[in-house]
């Protein structure tokens, strides 16, 4: 049985000033290290954010056109700029399994730059009330596309895309906002 702590009530979307929902995400580890075994490793979202500045972005799905051509590559390319702005980690969240997220990260050369975090059952998306239901298109429940700047687990900036677009959650927009703080 998996335990999920839902911090938001139905129809209460995550917003600036809120804490990240505490759920279990999964990260595929290609090389075993002390504390991280090879394969999918559980990541407590709230614990992993403690004491860190995180550029987080979520998207509807790995390998989808805008996500693969623009969204993820933008964050990978801006890695050094985010580090220079004081960001400790960049997280990519998607409602996919850890194997898919790991493979997509390898295909996109994300290793060491972007943590590819699987929200396989959409627990994080549901807890943040940022679900995108694409069942009518055969894609099931997904995450809305957004970006956020999270400091010590608190959401400081949130850019939520409207209607599935890609206009405000890109790396350049979030980076400019972080620099302006």
Automatic annotation (TrEMBL):
Molecular function as annotated in GO: thioredoxin peroxidase activity
One Pfam entry name: Redoxin
Listed GO biological process terms: cell redox homeostasis; cellular response to oxidative stress; hydrogen peroxide catabolic process
Keywords, alphabetical: Antioxidant, Oxidoreductase, Peroxidase, Redox-active center
E.C. number: 1.11.1.27
KW Oxidoreductase (keyword) present: yes
Domain Thioredoxin: from-to ranges: 14-181
Catalytic residues (UniProt): 67
The keyword Oxidoreductase belongs to this UniProt entry's keyword annotation: yes
GO terms for cellular component: cytoplasm
Known catalytic reactions: a hydroperoxide + 2 glutathione = an alcohol + glutathione disulfide + H2O
Known role: Thiol-specific peroxidase that catalyzes the reduction of hydrogen peroxide and organic hydroperoxides to water and alcohols, respectively. Plays a role in cell protection against oxidative stress by detoxifying peroxides.
Family stated for the protein in its record: Belongs to the peroxiredoxin family. Prx5 subfamily.
Protein name: Glutathione-dependent peroxiredoxin
């Amino acid at each position: 049985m998996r335990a999920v702590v839902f911090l938001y009530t139905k129809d209460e979307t995550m917003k600036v000033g809120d804490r990240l929902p505490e759920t279990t995400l999964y990260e595929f580890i290609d090389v075993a290290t002390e504390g991280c075994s090879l394969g999918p490793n559980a990541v407590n979202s709230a614990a992993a954010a403690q004491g860190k500045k995180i550029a987080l972005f979520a998207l509807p799905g790995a390998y989808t056109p805008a996500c693969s051509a623009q969204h993820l590559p933008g964050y990978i390319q801006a890695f050094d700029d985010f580090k220079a702005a004081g960001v400790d980690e960049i997280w990519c969240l998607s409602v996919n399994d850890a194997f898919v997220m790991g493979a997509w990260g390898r295909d996109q050369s994300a290793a060491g730059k972007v943590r590819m975090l699987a929200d396989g059952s959409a627990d994080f998306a549901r807890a943040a009330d940022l679900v995108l239901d694409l069942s009518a298109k055969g894609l099931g429940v997904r995450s809305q596309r957004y970006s956020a700047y999270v400091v010590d687990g608190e959401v400081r900036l949130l850019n939520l895309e409207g209607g599935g677009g890609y206009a405000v959650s890109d790396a350049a927009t979030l980076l400019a906002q972080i620099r302006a703080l």
